[in-house]
Amino acid sequence: xxxxxxxxxKFLKTAGLTTLIxxxxxxxxxxxxxxxxxINSRYDxxxxxxxxxVNSIKWDGAIRKYGKDKIIxxxxxxxxxxxQMPAVTKALMERVEYESYGYEMVTDEYYQSIIDWNKxxxxxxxxxxxxxxxxxxxxxxxxxxxxxNPVGGKVAVMTPTYSGFNIxxxxxxxxxxxxxxxxxxxxxxxxxxxLESRLDYETKCLILCNPNNPTGECWTAxxxxxxxxxxxxxxxxxxxxxxxxxxxRKEQKYIPYASIGxxxxxxxITYKSAGKTxxxxxxxxxxxxxxxxxxxxxxxxGGGHQxxxxxxxxxxxxxxxxxxxxxxxxxxxxxxxxxxxxVDYINTPGEMPGIEYSKPESTYLAWLDCxxxxxxxxxxxxxxxxxxxxxxxxxxxxxxxxxQLNAGHVYGIGSDGFLRMNIAxxxxxxxxxxxxxxxxxxxxx
Length: 445
Ligand SMILES: Cc1ncc(COP(=O)(O)O)c(C=O)c1O
Prior knowledge:
Blueprint: H1 6-21, H2 57-66, E1 73-74, H3 86-97, H4 108-122, E2 131-134, H5 137-148, E3 154-159, H6 164-171, E4 175-180, E5 182-184, E6 187-189, H7 192-198, E7 203-209, H8 221-233, E8 237-241, H9 262-266, E9 268-272, E10 286-289, H10 293-300, H11 311-323, H12 325-347, E11 365-369, H13 371-380, H14 389-401, E12 403-404, E13 406-407, E14 418-422, H15 427-444
Parallel strand pairs: 1-12, 3-4, 3-7, 7-8, 8-9
Antiparallel strand pairs: 2-10, 5-6, 9-10, 11-14, 13-14
The chain binds pyridoxal-5'-phosphate (PLP).
Pyridoxal-5'-phosphate binds next to helix 5.
């Protein structure tokens, strides 16, 4: 493989630090941060891995949008700032060196790695003939929506949930039917009465996010069965997006929707990939499966699946699933300790005024309740036309803390006053972000 030229490597090594250190004088530089995490893993998640200068949406996208001197720690789009698992990089380099990229068949080893990962980690039995491939979870869902829902019909989601569902539902030519969840004692609960009242002859699909982005619930078997019973009663197919299933807090358990009983497995399609778990989103390989052949046939009518799979994504999935169990365990430990650090910081009286937060059950996303802040910021700084209070808040935090968080409203009804923070970053960045937010918030409250 052709090595990077020294000048490019040098640029990548220094570009991040330059940006961070030349940021406006209000904010702290990296020099102050020092990781305290003690992680029992041979992988070094503390190491800062520079992502500036390679078109990363999180870093370069934010810098392009808001300005180089404004972005200190971007914590928006859901990918991780950690280096790829070494065994994956090694396998990809070996494949690149074989300089032929013509059509290739999907290997049995790839399918077996999917089967083994799901069996070994979650006890779930999947057969090879049930599996189809797509270039992403969401792109795999569009044809299923077209095949299963009436033309122009409605697709149910329970909000707050992943904003990409709206985009894909609209791409499929459908309308989004939002059923707001309720936050009870710090945990979001499905409101099945509300959901049931919305299911009619136009609504034949529900997209479930299991576990849920952005609120982090690992749905229990009882919760999933109760949801499934409502869906089955109304002839609604559950499209269960389980992309977050491997990123789970220590004391939590992920329950695959298709594992809770035959009738639920029969009336659902599960969507997965190694993309979130191993930070391989841009390699564009995902898979979906159901034990119900008729359902799969109906879901395939809209096209969109792939017989062949991008070779690099295929190799990355296979190697990660075969060799990555320890890496994911180390990652989860690291994220656990990042969450502990975040929760301690926010809940130390006076340190993060206006924000409420408790540790989630899964994902690396913190769904921060900033309702105590939005009025203050909105009155300190007028809303522009069309701007929501969450947009304003997000913009204000970039301006005053150099920290980019996602504005809540795109995650649907119930998201007012929330911001989403991605904490899959080295501790030194998390600390820097929180110290900067602390300073900025103390200046207005
Ligand atoms: C719940 C959920 N589903 C799907 C996706 C996107 O997956 P893909 O890039 O494979 O379409 C994301 C990305 O953040 C997500 O959070």
